[in-house]
Design a protein that fits this description.
475 residues, alpha/beta, Carbamate kinase, 2 domains, 8-stranded mixed β-sheet
Length: 475
C-alpha cells in the first residue's frame, strides 16, 4: 500500500441510503483513476435501529426484543422486519437482476445464520448454568455487524457493475473463530490489497478482542475508520455527511445565515462531540490527532466542495466559529453541611456513573453542586433517590434547561461571555447561567428549554454573522 497518497473515507448511514446517487460523483467521479481510496461504510439508514433499537425513540429492534423476550420468540418478527428493510434498501441501490439476487442471498444467509445462533443461545440459556445476560454484548455485536456487512457487500456489487475493481472487506468476523485485536483484524483483511488498482469497501463494524460496542456502542464505525486511517498512514481521513459542517444548524438560523466552517481543529471537534453534535467520535478524533492524520468533513452530495479541514493547527485569529446547543437537565444538590466537607462531589459522580448519565458540564460553589446532564428524567429520578438516601437533609432537584455554546479555536479577546449575555437580553431572552473556563475555546449559556432555538439565533447573529472583533487590551 502507498503510505503517502491514499485516503480513508467514511460514508454515514443517511448518505448510504442514497449511495446509488454517489456512484458517478463521489465514488467514481471524473478523476483519471478512482483508486487510492478506502471506503468505510455504515449500514443503510434505519437498519441498525431495526437490528438493535431505535436510537432516538428506544423502540425495540431485534436485540432489544431478544433481551426482553422472557424466553419467547417475539424477536423473530423484529428480525423479519429487518430482513424486509434490508432487501428494500439494496433493491433501491442495485439495478441489475443478477446483483439483486446475490444481495437477496446475502441477506438470507446472514439473517438465517443470526436467527439460528439466537435460537441456540436461547435454548442453551434455558438451563440454569447459563445466563442470557452474560451473552447480550456479543449478541449486540453480532446483530449490529449484519448491517455494515450488508451495505458494504451491496456497494461492492454496485461498483463492480459500473466497471470498478471494488473489493468487499468484511471485518465483522462472520463465522470466524479467530481471536484477534482490532489492528490485527484490519491488517489481515487488507493484506494483498493494491490500493492503486482496487477500491476496498470496508465494514464499519469490526469484530475484535477489544469489543468495540462495549466502550463505543454505536460510535464504533468511526473508531474503525480512524484506526484504519492511522494504521495505513493515510494522507487524509474524510467523513462524507449529508450536510456541511456549518456555523449553526441551518434549520434553526436559516440556510442563508450559516457559514461553512472551512477549517477548524480537533479542540473544536471535541467540544462539538460533548454537545452531541459530533463531527467525529472523540476517541476516533484522538486516534487521528495522535497519528498526525488530518480529518476532512464534506457534504457527500457536493463532491466538488472541499468541505471543512480539521487538524491540529491554531486559528490565525480569534473568532467564534460555531453556535450550537442541546436540551439538558440541571441536576442540583444543595446541602448546607457541604461547606468545608469532602466526599459530596465524589459520591455524586459515582452515582451518575453507575446510572450511565452523561455529564456535559458542571458548576459548584460552597454548598451547591450542579451537573448539566444529557439524560432522561426517568433515570434522573433514580439518581435523585440514591442521593437522597445518602444525604437525607439535602435538597435535590432536576430542572429541564438547555445549553447554548459558542465555540472556536481561539476566543481570546472577544468578550464572548459579556457580548453573548447582551445579545440574549436584546432578544428578550434571559440566561439562567453562563460560564467560561480559562481555556478560550467555549463559552456556555444556560437558558430555559423553550428558548433554545431563539438563543442560538441571537448568539449566532451577534457572535458569528456580525463577526465580532477582538477588544483592545487594557494598558
Amino acid at each position: 500500500m502507498d503510505q503517502a497518497t491514499h485516503t480513508v473515507e467514511k460514508i454515514g448511514g443517511t448518505s448510504m441510503s442514497r449511495v446509488h446517487e454517489l456512484r458517478d460523483t463521489l465514488l467514481i467521479g471524473d478523476r483519471d483513476a478512482p483508486y487510492g481510496r478506502i471506503f468505510v461504510v455504515s449500514a443503510f439508514g434505519g437498519i441498525t435501529n431495526l437490528l438493535l433499537e431505535h436510537k432516538k425513540t428506544g423502540e425495540p429492534g431485534v436485540h432489544a426484543a431478544f433481551a426482553d423476550g422472557g424466553g419467547d420468540h417475539g424477536w423473530l418478527s423484529a428480525l423479519d422486519r429487518a430482513s424486509t428493510a434490508m432487501t428494500k434498501a439494496h433493491r433501491l441501490v442495485l439495478d441489475h437482476p443478477g446483483d439483486q439476487e446475490r444481495a437477496d442471498a446475502f441477506v438470507r444467509d446472514r439473517l438465517i445464520g443470526a436467527r439460528n445462533c439466537l435460537i441456540d443461545l436461547q435454548r442453551l440459556c434455558s438451563y440454569g448454568h447459563f445466563r442470557l445476560s452474560e451473552h447480550m454484548l456479543q449478541t449486540r455485536e453480532l446483530l449490529s455487524g449484519l448491517g455494515e456487512a450488508h451495505s458494504a457487500f451491496v456497494t461492492t456489487l454496485m461498483l463492480q457493475r459500473a466497471g470498478i475493481s471494488a473489493r468487499f472487506v468484511d471485518l465483522s468476523g462472520w463465522r470466524d473463530d479467530a481471536e484477534v485485536t482490532l489492528d490485527e483484524r484490519i491488517l489481515a483483511a487488507l493484506e494483498g490489497v493494491d490500493l492503486q488498482a482496487e477500491m476496498p469497501i470496508v465494514t464499519g463494524y469490526a469484530q475484535c478482542l477489544e469489543g468495540l460496542m462495549r466502550e463505543f456502542d454505536r460510535g464504533y464505525s468511526e473508531v474503525t475508520f480512524s484506526r484504519l486511517a492511522a494504521l495505513t498512514g493515510a494522507r487524509e481521513a474524510i467523513i462524507h455527511k449529508e450536510f456541511h459542517l456549518s456555523s449553526a444548524d441551518p434549520g434553526v438560523v436559516g440556510p442563508d445565515a450559516v457559514r461553512k466552517l472551512g477549517r477548524t481543529n480537533y479542540d473544536v471537534a471535541d467540544q462539538l462531540s460533548n454537545l452531541g453534535m459530533e463531527a467525529i467520535h472523540p476517541h476516533a478524533a484522538k486516534t487521528l490527532r495522535q497519528s498526525g492524520v488530518a480529518l476532512r468533513v464534506t457534504n457527500a452530495f457536493e463532491p466538488g466542495d472541499p468541505g471543512t479541514l480539521i487538524d491540529d493547527q491554531p486559528a490565525s485569529q480569534p473568532a467564534v466559529e460555531i453556535v450550537t446547543g442541546l436540551d439538558l437537565y440541571a441536576l442540583e444538590l444543595f446541602e448546607q453541611d457541604m461547606v468545608g466537607a469532602k466526599g459530596y462531589d465524589a459520591f455524586l459522580l459515582g452515582v451518575l456513573t453507575r446510572h450511565k448519565v452523561r455529564i456535559v458540564s458542571k458548576l459548584s460553589n460552597a454548598n451547591t453542586i450542579t451537573h448539566y446532564v444529557d439524560s432522561s428524567l426517568k433515570v434522573l429520578r433514580r439518581v435523585e433517590k440514591d442521593l437522597a438516601d445518602r444525604y437525607p437533609s439535602a435538597r435535590i432537584s432536576s430542572r429541564a434547561v438547555a445549553m447554548v455554546s459558542a465555540v472556536g479555536r481561539d476566543l481570546s479577546g472577544l468578550a464572548v461571555l459579556s457580548r453573548g449575555l447582551k445579545a440574549l437580553a436584546d432578544a428578550g431572552l434571559e440566561a439562567i447561567g453562563a460560564s467560561q473556563g480559562p481555556r478560550p475555546v467555549e463559552v456556555q449559556f444556560i437558558v430555559e428549554r423553550e428558548a433554545l432555538a431563539g438563543s442560538i439565533r441571537a448568539l449566532h447573529q451577534a457572535l458569528v454573522k456580525d463577526r465580532i472583533k477582538v477588544l483592545p487590551r487594557a494598558a
